[in-house]
Amino acid sequence: MNEDRPPASRTGKLLAVLLLASALGLGSCTAAQEPDPAPAAGPSSSSPSADPSPEPSATPGAGPECPGLRCTSVMLAGDLLVHPQLWDQARLDAGTTGKQPLDFEPLLEGMRPYISGADLAVCHMETPVAEADGPYAGYPMFNVPPQILTAAAAVGYQACTTASNHTVDAGTEGLNRTLGVLDSLGLEHTGSYATEADSEIPMILDTSGARISVIEATYGLNGLEAEHPWQVDMLDAEDMISRAQAAREQGADIVLGAVHAGDEYASMPNAQQIETAHALADSGQFDLIYGHHTHSVLPIENYNGTWIVYGLGNAVTELSPWYAVNNEGLIVRAQFAQENDGADWRVSDLAWAPSVIVRDPYRWCSVAADLPQGPCASEAQQAEVRQRTVSVVESMGARPAGAHEWLVSEDVSAR
């Protein structure tokens, strides 16, 4: 992870607490103090010796050259979808690394240079996690090893979304346990909540250049119901827009929308995805929209000036013998720029890189043109995955609109 980059931190919850404290009069101890004496007379404001206004500070951020006064960047990845084969691999890796009983870090290691190439990295935790020593469960009712989140934090992720069709697979207990593990690792989160009060506080993350919020929601819960209606954010465009407005009122400069929906293993977004994403974009409250759920890479679209990444596929998963697309993913880095003080933020660069899961051993493997990990898949598989990913990603006009492949080795050499 880039050591020069300050860690992102959540401030929405703190702001809400401070506002509540003010409303309750908890700051009254300062009100009782004697007022400060009047300041001594100084030079007139019209004096020619008055100091000039300070120049606004430039913040280039991580990523490509900043085209404005300030820039910041966000890296987004697909589902962390852990199956038994992956925790078997983590047990083998723990035997080598000594990080007992399970070590998922080698599985995710290839993501590290991409994560360090952005100011903020956000993962998607698809399922609940179990107790550290199990028992674990895979499909269809997941309850997976929490060590996957330990590894996500270790390679540099700073936050995760948690609303999916599997969020309540292990009930309220599993939902709360997952959030507790995220909290213990310092990973911020949104999409599911332990308390109703938490559900009303937007996740706002500070980078060196801007304050960024992520608003997420899922289309459903696989026929289950959450114990409380506030526990999981359900897909509703108007509600997401309202929450985005609330995030901006609490200081967010940039708002991302995360839509968990779509048809599994598809290569195009369905009507619900398109309608929801376009409604979010039309509201003017979202600076970028992206999606999960289909377990397949989906197109990137520039809709009336707003970028929509319809589907990031899987970050990690077991290899499907029936659907090759299940084994593939997309990571995206969006650079946001502010031209000058007070100007709106805009996406100034959108880059993507294709990936695939390989086995023996199981590893996340970039198949971008620069092969930053080296050839971790066969030449035939690399070519097949790249061809399929490029054709899908660019099928809704992404390339002429300016989206391009992310060659992270060029970033590393520049840094």
TrEMBL record:
Residues 73-319 form the Capsule synthesis protein CapA domain. Pfam families: PGA_cap (PF09587). Residues 29-65 are annotated as: Disordered. InterPro entries: Capsule_synth_CapA, CW_Biosynth-Accessory, Metallo-depent_PP-like. The keyword Cell inner membrane does not apply. Residues 39-50 have a biased composition (Low complexity). The keyword Signal applies. Gene3D superfamilies: 3.60.21.10. It comes from the Bacteria. SMART domains: PGA_cap. Keywords: Signal. Residues 1-31 form the signal peptide. Belongs to the CapA family. This is CapA family protein. It comes from Arthrobacter koreensis. The lineage of its organism: Bacteria, Bacillati, Actinomycetota, Actinomycetes, Micrococcales.
